[in-house]
């Protein structure tokens, strides 16, 4: 990667550092990443129901330690995972060796990967990442460039409103201590209207949107139509 490119990369160094410091705990289902482990089966089935993964080429943008990437590979997809945290990718690689699940991991920015492997993927996933980068629209454009015509793109992020602040920041980070304090910056949360506008501006078609809720009493996550806090969007790249 050239120095010039590195200086303009669409990433917040403090965000990369934050997740790098936690990388060794990525696969500990009782660690700060417990919520990711618990929502992963819901995300996986939602994706697989819309775009059956078996035999598909898939790229997970912002793959972190590989929780979603590995689970998609277990569905017989040919999976690539990209991230800018070297430590998280090392953890992903090591876990892949332990589990025997094959995923190709690479430290590369989404925009650079889109230049190199444009139109190569049947499915692109970008989950819980957009709220951590300076320019989410640039990531969305990169996802559009990576996917084949007729292919599927999936995003998930957090809505920006008082309820989302209460649940995702105050509740999850401070009261329930499900996440490390400072995991989320409320100002970077993205409303469904903003996200769908960026998706359409990139040339993708929005097909469906799902909310994801957490019930503290039962400690259970569920998919529903309530997009007021966490939500996911399924898109297609027009042919």
From TrEMBL:
CDD domains, sorted:
AdoMet_MTases
Kindly list the GO molecular function terms attached to this UniProt entry: 2-polyprenyl-6-hydroxyphenol methylase activity; 3-demethylubiquinol 3-O-methyltransferase activity; polyprenyldihydroxybenzoate methyltransferase activity
Q: What class of enzyme is it?
A: transferase
Q: Which GO terms describe its biological process?
A: methylation
What keywords does the record list, in alphabetical order? Methyltransferase, S-adenosyl-L-methionine, Transferase, Ubiquinone biosynthesis
Q: Is Zinc-finger tagged as a keyword? A: no
Q: What is its EC number?
A: 2.1.1.222, 2.1.1.64
Q: Record's HAMAP family?
A: UbiG
Read off the PANTHER family from this record: METHYLTRANSFERASE (PTHR43464), UBIQUINONE BIOSYNTHESIS O-METHYLTRANSFERASE, MITOCHONDRIAL (PTHR43464:SF19)
Q: What does the function comment of this entry state?
A: O-methyltransferase that catalyzes the 2 O-methylation steps in the ubiquinone biosynthetic pathway.
Q: Which family does it belong to?
A: Belongs to the methyltransferase superfamily. UbiG/COQ3 family.
Please give the name of this protein.
Ubiquinone biosynthesis O-methyltransferase
What organism is listed for this UniProt entry? Undibacterium nitidum
């Amino acid at each position: 990667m050239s120095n010039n490119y590195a200086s303009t990369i669409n990433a917040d160094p403090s965000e990369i550092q934050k997740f790098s410091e936690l990388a060794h705990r990525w696969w500990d289902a009782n660690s700060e990443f417990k919520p990711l482990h618990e929502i992963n089966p819901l995300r996986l089935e939602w994706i697989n129901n819309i775009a059956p993964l078996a035999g598909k080429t898939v790229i997970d943008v912002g793959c972190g330690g590989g929780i979603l990437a590995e689970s998609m590979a277990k569905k017989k997809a040919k999976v690539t995972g990209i991230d800018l945290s070297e430590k998280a990718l090392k953890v992903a690689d090591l876990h892949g060796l332990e589990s025997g699940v094959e995923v190709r991991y690479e430290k590369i920015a989404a925009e650079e990967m889109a230049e190199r492997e444009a139109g190569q993927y049947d499915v692109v996933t970008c989950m819980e990442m957009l709220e951590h980068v300076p320019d989410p629209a640039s990531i969305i454009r990169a996802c559009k460039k990576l996917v084949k015509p007729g292919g599927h793109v999936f995003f998930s992020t957090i809505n920006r409103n008082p309820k989302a602040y209460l649940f995702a920041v105050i509740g999850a980070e401070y009261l329930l201590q499900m996440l490390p304090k400072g995991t989320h910056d409320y100002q970077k949360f993205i409303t469904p209207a903003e996200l769908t506008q960026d998706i359409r501006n990139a040339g993708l078609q929005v097909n469906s949107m799902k909310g994801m809720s957490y019930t503290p009493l039962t400690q259970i996550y569920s998919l529903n139509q309530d997009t007021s806090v966490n939500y996911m969007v399924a898109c297609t790249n027009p042919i």
